[in-house]
Automatic annotation (TrEMBL):
The keyword Oxidoreductase applies. Residues 51-229 form the FAD-binding PCMH-type domain. The keyword Lyase does not apply. PANTHER family: GLYCOLATE OXIDASE SUBUNIT GLCD. This is FAD-binding protein.
Length: 498
């Protein structure tokens, strides 16, 4: 498999591998250090399986002290570190480097405290997203952000990527449900940000860390808000003769002032794959399927169902089914949440994209994607968070066919450029990683990127944490603001310098 351009390998690190492994074993004893080639293959890629690379060594710490000592050791010896959670990242954010320690946080897997009075949960970063809801559901609570990978993805990884989910339209992304963090900086210093209180004093470093993709520090504890389950929730399953009609219905629902608990859309290929996989009762004679969940008190939900039905009919809906029980509502969602593995059954490989657009641009973007599909000769199945315009086109290809992976990547790049062109952004929740790194220039100018790099440098001046990710130019912090010397003369030589 191909691997994107990454920072130049540090030969001095490779030459010291045996000594480095020995030093790390002294910090994390027992089975906490993995250095055998075959054993490390389980960690050579994340959810973006097109790229893979064996790490220098894998370290699985169990305590905050071990994380702190590993990072301090790597900082002192200028060894690169790639943090990793459950490895479900779809942007290559946890792709290892040949000369970097892969710091895997999966052993931090305990719920530390459930505080119903303050509606908060403290958990270690390796706890799965669904694990938090499971821990509090008997008391009628839940954790709102729910990525489709929630059964496997870790809450620490959710923080790193600012993950979303089908219910984030109304209840927000990870950043809107995060209260506090404990994290370790690259120097080994342990810091705490936020807490159970609703707001923090001073600069909002908590928001800065959320979505920072492992470039600024390693999360060792997370405090999140939990919510009481609504009195009632019902879902509508609405079919349309075209994706454009479904997209317009989404825009009209939001324009009417209705904020559903979740609003998801699938096109015909995704509908067929999900139905064959889950048997959710999806109609197969429609081009687009919209799932709209409405929650609140019974009277409010009943009223909103009527309004949404009328909006859907105005947009030419051909079928509308309303859940009559929680079990039926869960079945509606089961097909959507299983859409990614379902599509995997109809194609040898697929490339999952992630871009976000203004909702009103949905019809235009979907039409353009269909044109691009014809241009590249590759099928695409669309599954996305329609309510907030977060698209997840799945480009179907066969890696064994020469040139198909490259065409899939070009197709995906054109989709992301289209998102930016219509006023959107390169990512909604999967992050930039290596997948979108070289497209950052389509959204940000050099001044923008320099300013972001300065933030990185403030936390990691040696550029040791997750290098090669996010920033398109592979440069070190020392190159920022470098003074230009022309013919031996500094600019403005008459100005005194101290």
């Amino acid at each position: 498999m191909a691997t994107p351009a990454m920072p130049e390998v540090q030969e001095k690190t490779l030459s010291r591998r045996e000594a480095i492994v020995g030093d790390l074993r002294a910090i994390v004893p027992g089975e906490g250090v993995v250095d055998a080639t075959n054993s490390m293959r389980a960690f050579e890629n994340d959810g973006l399986t097109a790229y893979r690379q064996l790490p220098l060594v894998v370290v699985l710490p169990e305590t905050v002290d071990q994380v702190s000592r590993v990072l301090a050791y790597c900082h002192e010896n200028e060894i690169r570190v790639v943090p990793r959670g459950s490895g479900t990242s779809l942007s290559g954010g946890a792709l290892p480097l040949e000369d970097a320690v892969l710091l895997v946080m999966s052993r931090f897997n305990q719920v530390l405290e459930i505080d119903y009075d303050n509606r908060a949960v403290r958990a270690q970063p390796g706890v799965t997203n669904l694990g938090i809801t499971t821990a509090v559901q008997d008391e009628g609570f839940y954790y709102a952000p729910d990525p489709s990978s929630q059964i496997a993805c870790s809450i620490g990884g959710n923080v790193a990527e600012n993950s979303g989910g089908v219910h984030c339209l109304k209840y927000g992304l990870t950043t809107n449900n995060l209260l506090g963090l404990e994290m370790v900086l690259v120097t080994g210093e342990v810091i705490r940000l936020g807490g159970k209180h609703l707001d923090s004093e001073g600069y909002d470093f908590l928001a800065l860390m959320t979505g920072s993709e492992g470039l600024l520090g390693v999360v060792t504890e997370v405090t999140v808000r939990i919510l009481k389950r609504p009195e009632t929730a019902r879902a509508l399953l609405i079919g349309f003769p075209s994706s454009e009609a479904g997209g317009q219905c989404v825009a009209d629902i939001i324009a009417a002032g209705i904020i559903p608990g979740g609003m998801e859309m699938m096109d015909k290929p995704a509908i067929a794959a999900a139905e064959d996989f889950v048997k959710a009762g999806y109609p197969l004679d429609v081009e687009a399927l919209l799932i709209v969940e409405l929650d609140g008190c019974v009277e409010e939900v009943d009223h909103l169902i009527d309004v949404v039905e009328r909006i859907a009919a105005k947009n030419g809906s051909t079928t509308c089914r309303i859940s009559m029980s929680d079990e039926e509502r869960a079945t509606f969602w089961a097909g959507r949440k299983a859409a990614f593995p379902a599509v995997g059954r109809i194609s040898p490989d697929y490339y999952c994209m992630d871009g976000t657009i203004p909702r009103k641009e949905l019809p235009r973007v979907l039409a353009r994607m269909r044109e691009l599909s014809g241009h590249y000769g590759l099928r695409v199945a669309n599954v996305f968070h329609a309510g907030d315009g977060n698209l997840h086109p799945l480009i179907l290809y066969d890696a064994n066919e020469p040139g198909e992976l490259e065409r899939a990547e070009e197709f995906g790049a054109d989709i992301l450029k289209l998102c930016v062109e219509v006023g959107g952004v390169l990512t909604g929740e999967h992050g930039v990683g290596v997948e979108k790194r070289d497209l950052m220039g389509t959204m940000f100018n050099e001044t923008d990127l320099d300013q972001q790099m300065r933030v990185k440098c403030a936390f990691d001046d040696k550029h040791l944490l997750n290098p090669g990710k996010v920033f398109p130019q592979l440069r070190r912090c020392a190159e920022m603001g470098r003074m230009h010397i022309h013919r031996g003369q500094m600019p403005f030589p008459d100005i005194p310098r101290f």
